[in-house]
Amino acid sequence: MNEKTTETNQKPIDPEVRLLAAIAYGESSTQNNADEMYALASILKRQRDARRYSSMAELVRGESSFSYVVGDGNPRFQKFKGATDAQVLIDPAMKVAVAAAENALANGPDRSNGAWFWDGADIKKNYETHFKVKNGIRFTHSSHNIYSLKESSKLVIKYKTTKKTVDGKSSIQKEEIYRYDHIYQSTAAHGGTIFWKQNPDYLKYTKAKEHK
Q: In angstroms, rounded to a whole number, what is the distance separating the alpha carbons of residues 169 and 58?
């Protein structure tokens, strides 16, 4: 029996590719930048694996807050989800999203440079209250600062206290164990999206998970 094909005589888009492409397309800016969609797809696939989900559908069900476009009525996500395979493959931007998803699922080149997180224009709009800004951001290259943001700091110092007795007199001494002043540092920026990973010092000292 011949495999069912779309109106364009193409093989149906694999469901895993389709959902990943739809999310990457929805999360990307209206610039329809290929590097942006490729980077987003790579992060989503990496997060899927790190969180031990076997599919994008499981990631979406298990981590509903990870990508809001799935449930918040995002028009780009809805446009992709509502399109037939034939419509997807003749739309230049959606076709790029499919290629980005296929690249990510094949562990192809990662245009996010190892990022685990991303932000669009909301980080500028909500700068004062933004979670990443409040915890400290650093740009590793000026080209990543596409919204002309001010870097932020949140100094954290960990001390070890010891009690010492000398000549019958006790005293408490503090010894610095570690410090860091930001959690997020940029890895790339494409289109309207800044890509981030966590500060290696923060991960080293706090034993935090790099994908959370």
A: 61
How many angstroms separate the CA atoms of 193 and 24, rounded?
11
What CA–CA distances, in Å, run from 14 to 98, 130, 146?
10, 36, 34
Q: What is the Cα–Cα distance from 73 to 196, expressed in whole angstroms?
A: 25
Q: What is the per-residue pLDDT across 108-132, written as a single tens digit (0 to 9) for each?
A: 999 999 999 999 999 999 999 999 9
Neighbours of 59 (CB within 10 A): 24
The whole-model pTM stands at: 0.88
Token pair listed for 93 = 């931007």
Q: Contact at 8 Å (CB) between 16 and 56?
A: yes
Tokens 């990662």: give the residue: 110
Query: Checking DSSP bridges between strand 193-198 and strand 184-190, what pairing results, if any?
Result: antiparallel
- Taking the CA atoms of the chain, what radius of gyration do you get in angstroms? 22
Burial of 204 from C-beta contacts in 10 A (0-12 / 13-18 / 19+): exposed
Measured distance between the N- and C-terminal CA atoms of the chain, rounded to whole angstroms: 46
Reference 44, options 108, 144, 116, 149; nearest CA is 116
Separation of CA 150 from chain center: 20
